[in-house]
Amino acid sequence: MTDTTTGARPPYAGTRYPRLAQIPAFREFIAQGWDDVPTRPDLPQGSAQAAAAHRARLSAAMPDATLVLSSGIAPVRNDDSSYGFRADSSFVWATGCQTEEATLVMWARPGGHDAVLYMPAPFRPGDDGFYSDALHGELWVGPSAGLAEWADELQVTVEPLEALPARAADLRGALAARSAGALAAAHDLEVSADLERTLSRLRMVKDDWEIGQLRLAIDATVSGFAAVVAEIPRAISDGLGERWLQGTFDRHARTHGNGPGYSTIVGSGAHAPILHWVRCDGPIHPDQALLLDMGVEARSLYTADVTRTVPAQGSFSAAQREVHDLVEKAHRAGLAQIRPGTAYLDFHFASMQVVAQGLHDWGLLPVSVDEALSPQGQQHRRYLACGIGHHLGLDVHDCSQAHYEDYMGADLEPGVVMTVEPGLYFHAHDLTLPPELRGIGVRLEDDILVTPSGSDVLSDALPIDAAGIEEWTRRQWASR
């Protein structure tokens, strides 16, 4: 209310809630009359056991140093609103925990490490933060698991976050991950490239639990593709466009997982060749190809990454099909190289050989195939500037902090999960192309597990050949 004599607002008005703590009557009343709501962490089954095994591997790899990883904090979106929080991937790998502002310290000791997880305790009735802290106050975020419940669930020592500064002297010489950069700056720690490299190297080989989580994410993604493709006729007839299809998948991902693993790409016609077309603000052109690059992130934060290019009217045109057939041929060549003991980049070179030969056969290269494929050439990359694949896991481009020799210079081994994703991107304004090819973008992307005897295409429930995609697309429409 407003003071009628002065027109001034009283100090407890508005949204500056800490001022309410200055009013004894309010503090006394809001602290009373709340029922206890027992709450435990809601984690995917097996998270704690997997994280313990991951910490053991990290401890064995870096036995002599105290190691620090943090979950992070959501960046500000605008004014006092933040983006949705998503915990740091290496922190989740080592803890199974997704709580904001939490820090894992693996204290070095003879023969290994003692792991302690420091996290903010929730503010409950009787705490001023219950109503004044929008990040951890239960009046804002709802009943939350306490430290004891987290310790019991994760089977690790959990202490309040405010206990960590008291041990600052013990942190001297500790190695911090990038996620713990703020803590490193406060306590003069080293943000360690060696720790990041080690984490990336360890995360490259997935254990059985991680592979199970990726299968869940990929299966949910396959059903998400079906949901999106079923909406194509409506998106065209009602003028809803790319954004309707993007929203359809994002809703599916939020329903069947944590959400999208990355920004969903829906590109119709001339938007399809744009590698990261996440604006999705155009119409669906019924006579043009539609590129869909989408992945569900599971509740454990492991993500899928799958791409298909579908005909918006149910059948590819002759030019679209010719492009798709060449991409399919390159895709199959890449898939054939995924097996233990082969060099990581073999799949890349196999796909590029097919692409360069096809472009040469179409008369699009100004040089021979050999010249194009040479380090001094690469003219074919005008139409395929990105790579042919990457590691996959907690991050869509997983293990990116690994050194070249660990990532691209290594041989494949069982437990590696990766993508193969050749494409051709013929931009509508590219005058080196004949008119019938301009504005066609095609990508095929599958998620593949390296097995002891070869490989397993985890996303093979979706067809990759043009005829199969046409039939599958029409089948989704018939099932609406």
TrEMBL record:
A GO CC term assigned to this protein in UniProt: cytosol
Class of this enzyme: hydrolase
Keyword Transcription regulation: no
BP-aspect Gene Ontology terms: proteolysis
Domain Aminopeptidase P N-terminal positions: 46-188
Any Pfam family hit: AMP_N
Keywords attached to this entry: Aminopeptidase, Hydrolase, Manganese, Metal-binding, Protease
InterPro entries assigned to the protein according to its UniProt record, in alphabetical order: Aminopep_P_N, Creatin/AminoP/Spt16_N, Creatinase/aminopeptidase-like, Pept_M24, X-Pro_dipept-like
Cofactors demanded by this protein: Mn(2+)
Gene Ontology terms, MF aspect: manganese ion binding; metalloaminopeptidase activity
Entry protein name: Xaa-Pro aminopeptidase
Catalytic activity: Release of any N-terminal amino acid, including proline, that is linked to proline, even from a dipeptide or tripeptide
EC numbers on record: 3.4.11.9
Family per similarity comment: Belongs to the peptidase M24B family.
